[in-house]
Write a structure and sequence with these properties.
single chain; mainly alpha; globular
Length: about 230
């Protein structure tokens, strides 16, 4: 029986993600901008805005540049001192919420949890895994309509443990993105709990990867339950 390396299966997922993603370059440019901002260079902040707008064009993030320019470096400096992930996400939520509020006829501040996580990820891809609402719902990470910050931290802890158990060998800055590509195709792409990606992999003769991914997702779900109980 052929031994399947998990990394090989995730590489197949990566190729599929690049095919179905409308513009993967926007994400890559946002990552580069995040690296520059970590060094104190905010000249490419607009690329972070572009990334968030591409994800959700109707959300109101076009008004975000001013908020980021005024606040982002200070918030990042504080995070790099105290490494408080929850507080960092909450402060990014505040920035995004203010931008959305300004762009509405009837201003109402919103809790921009998914947008904040996406922004945190492109700034610190080694520290903040991506997630969206279909993934959070499908994987069991949230208990109500809106994902909460503490639920996200439980998800992150569970994901770290699952990566450890499967001995996945990815570069630190890529590990969470590789997992997100699987979860995106499983839960978000067709919103059919993996049926489409499993059929596609089966048609391509990659059945061994299907079994591996099912084990991975089941383990992650179990780890999330454990983390939520602590």
């Amino acid at each position: 029986m052929e031994i399947i390396k998990p990394e090989d299966c995730f590489e197949k997922v990566h190729q599929l993600w690049e095919f179905v993603e409308k513009n993967p370059e926007i994400y890559k440019e946002a990552l580069k901008a995040g690296e520059k901002i970590r060094k104190g260079n905010t000249s490419d902040i607009e690329k972070l805005v572009k990334f968030l707008v591409a994800w959700n064009p109707r959300r109101g993030y076009r008004n975000l540049r001013e908020q980021l320019t005024e606040n982002l470096i200070a918030i990042m400096s504080e995070f790099e001192k105290d490494h408080d992930e929850e507080k960092f996400i909450e402060k990014l939520q505040d920035i995004l919420g203010e931008a959305v509020k300004k762009g509405r006829k009837r201003p109402k501040k919103t809790r921009e949890i998914i947008g904040a996580i996406k922004l945190a990820h492109v700034l610190y891809p080694e520290a903040f895994p991506l997630i969206d609402n279909p993934i959070a719902r499908g994987i069991g990470a949230k208990k109500s309509e809106t994902l909460k910050v503490d639920e996200y931290i439980h998800f992150k802890d569970a994901l770290d443990e699952t990566i450890r158990k499967f001995k996945l060998d990815f570069p630190e800055r890529e590990k969470y993105k590789r997992i997100d590509e699987l979860l995106y195709l499983w839960y978000t792409w067709k919103e059919d709990n993996g049926k489409s990606i499993k059929k596609l992999f089966s048609d391509l003769g990659w059945e061994g990867c299907i079994e591996l991914f099912e084990d991975f997702i089941e383990t992650l779900q179990e780890e999330i339950k454990k983390s939520q109980q602590t």
